[in-house]
Each structure stands twice: as C-alpha cells, then as structure tokens.
Amino acid sequence: MMDVGRLCIKIAGRNAGSYCVIVDKVDDNFVLIDGNVKRKKCNIRHLEPLDKVLDIRKGASTSAVHEAMKKENIDIVTVKSKVKKAEKPVRQRKKKVAEPAKEKPKKK
Hints:
Number of strands: 5
Shape: rod-shaped
Order of helices and strands: EEEEEH
CATH class of the domain at 6-79: Mainly Beta
Strand order of the largest sheet: 4-3-2-1-5
Helix content: under 10%
Distance between the termini: 97 Å
Largest sheet: 5 strands, antiparallel
Structural class: mainly beta
CATH architecture of the domain at 6-79: Roll
Strand content: 25-35%
C-alpha cells in the first residue's frame, strides 16, 4: 500500500492536512515524503494514503515531485525553510567604558 509515488494526506504533526508523496521507503514503519511539506522521514501512521499513484522514480527530487503533482492538478504550496544565520540580525553588545583609576589616600 505504501509504495513510491503514492499520494497521501498528512494527518498528524505540523503539516496536518497537506498533500505529500512517498519518495522512498525507509523501513516497515517509516517513509521519505515530499510535496507540500518539507522533505523528511515520516511515520506511516501519520499518513492517509489516497487512490492516486504519481509516476515518479525512487528518490526523485522535489522539482520532479512538484511536476508530477502539477500533471495531476494538485495545488502546490511552496514550503519556506528556516532563516539562515547570515540573514539574522546581529545583536550589538554595549561596550564597557573604562573609568579613571581613583587615587588612594596616603597613609601617614
């Protein structure tokens, strides 16, 4: 049932309700998914398989999966990745100002 190219709906997790396609089978419980979700390993219990099977090869790229989804008239939602470190604003630290040394009273 869970073979390469199977169109599924994610039913659990952050992307619940999104369409995804099985790209590779990892083992009996896990598959690699892609499509309207980030490409990642997913438990098969978190997927609801549909009747459609897309024509893709094992380990197909994200662009190949999107092309196969377009042929089946499935809306494609682009998934934004996290912000890279170089794009984050750098927090400026306050510089310490050196205070002048106080004179010690002389002992008599």
